[in-house]
Amino acid sequence: MKTRTLQNLLSLLAVLVLAPVQAYSQVFEVQELSDRVSIVSNADLGDQVVVQSSKGLVIFDSFWSEKTALLFKKEISEALHRDDFSYVINMVDRLDQFGGNAVYQEAAIIGHENFISKFHDETRVVEEIKDLIEMWRFKEEASRNRLKEMEKNSEEARSEEAWMHICKSRADELEHDFSLELPEIVYNDRMSLDLGDITLKLFWLGEAGNYSGLSMALIPEEDLAVLSKSIIYPMYHLAPYVHPDYADLDVTRWIQLLAQILEGEHAVSRIILCDDDQVYTRDLWLGHLNYIRTLWERVRTLDEEGKSLQEIQEQLSLDNEFAFVKEMPVYLNNNDQWIRPQHELHVKHFYHQGKNPDSEIP
Description:
single chain; alpha/beta; Metallo-beta-lactamase, Chain A; about 40% helix
């Protein structure tokens, strides 16, 4: 039985007057990776991976609202000339990634069992939605302030204004169009879906700081893995990006699962993110696996030798043992000010694993 929606919970939030919302781009693009796998994209709304099988359509995540989910559902049906949605795979336990589940009443919704344990508490749901709304309102206001310093009608100003309207729309939809529909099929460690002509294998990534319900998917027949940006976003992040203060991390599990899809005889050659339109090579992801594995081994070794966190930070800095990070695309495409703090945070969290039973990092 599907879980009830969150409409009654949203009444606990302050009621705000609806303001006119900038229209979204009406242009959708469909990138066909194969006869069975496509990425449907909208410049303002994002991307959605769709798998066609003999047993129906499979999609990953459902955005932040029923409104946006419905737009993608309609576009997918028209582009692929079929509307037999069979499964929605919820890949990450972040409320603005599955707020459109209710649009797919005909499909089975699948996610890790931690979705249920995490979001059974109505108070927690309301608080997280409120935080997300505040985040997008903050981004909207920051964008508006930047816009004041730009030349009116310049390309830079038009781009900034478009982003400001996107932030406003995300906040508005989370406020008025989000509904909570939790997975009706859950798994613990891994599960396999027989889709007739292909197989979809799901693996739980383990604890990753903010997230406890992260999944990664493998489609052997397509030589393809599907992950979430919340696992690693190789455009911006070295490893799963965790909260600055709290971090339960199953690092050894990350290494094991990433090695399974990236190394050995049955490694995939292509990786895509369920919320991105890029196709990533195995070599790029191997660089991130090497970073995580090397950092974990060195932190553990130096800790066992009795080194302090400060000493470990210095020895494993980007100026010493981890200078190789400066050759990684994620560093070259960003800058030192963006990547160095990430690395220092990862060292800190890797060091503290198992040391604090409350998972609070001082």
